[in-house]
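Are you able to produce any protein sequence you like plus the matching backbone structure tokens because I've never seen that pairing?
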Amino acid sequence: GVILGPDGNRMSKSRGNVTDPSELIDRYGADGLRFGLLQSAVAGANLPLPEDDMRSGQKFSNKIWNISRFLQLRIGSDLGSKLKLASLNENGSKSELAIKINQEIKTVVKEVTEKLDKYRFHEAINILYHSIWHEFADKIIEESKSALENNDQEIQLALISAWQKYLILLHPFMPFITEAIWQELFAQNKQDLLMTA
């Protein structure tokens, strides 16, 4: 499929219906632009320029940043050093909430991987969007707040492990914000890039 101009026709300089991508990046951010295009791009179908989806991508970027800030404030800034503990703890969880967190991220990893293997990128990004916004942010983090106030290590480790996996899954779709967050929260040194994780 091709991206259509605002008039519904194929973008063409001779028609004068071309939208400058740098203007869209200024408006919605590079990750917002990528998100909007990928979320709307059904294989083989023509795509009207999806500015509403780009706006959603901009808001989603903000949500990702806010989740990261929340985890950093509640758990600490060097989440990377706690990841080894998280991977050791993952299968030995006793808390119902930790089990729920681990199960949710395992399901998302499986579903997104299946969609990527079939080149169904719009379905993969939609799974991530709904899981991060509606499950992780709206439900899991809300349920975790009292445990985090009590410094519950098991919940902290489950959240850290899940967030790391979400960033890895999101990176091909939204590389700029995820790499910036990775460098701040998980990288042990500047050469420890998310794109190689």
Notes: The chain is about 65% helix and 0% strand. The chain has a mean pLDDT of 88. Residues 121-149 form the longest helix (29 residues). Residues 122 and 176 are 19 Å apart (CA to CA).
